[in-house]
Design brief:
6 helices
Amino acid sequence: SLLHIFACNLHRTLTHEERSDIINDKDLPVALDNVRHILQHGKHSQLQVLQFIHDAELKDIFPNVWIALKILLMLPVTVVNGERSFSKLRLIKTYIRSMMANKRLTLLAVLSFENAIGQSLYLSEAVLQFVKQHALSKVPQMNKETK
């Protein structure tokens, strides 16, 4: 049965150096079936079953179920949520890259325009015009008396 396959897989996973004191793969399917009969009505989440075993003080009666549920509830769920978060991460990275590329392209266009304007200027004429406006005669000269 599927329950027995689950129990064997869990037992194999928790076995270290051919020894596993944590879960008994032969007792777990029977214990899970007994817990299912005790709960008998409605569907219950793993957390609700664990809470029931704790509240009814059945930890010593169903130790394999108690340990298996604690392991199950402590493992992070990575299959569905992880794929979604990775795809969201990929979307965010793509968006940031495109925004950076757009910003760089905009700055490159501005540099190109400034370069075109700079190339069109005649530098020698600009220097001559500056010198004419700020002629040396306007620069204060030191008198021989102030020395």
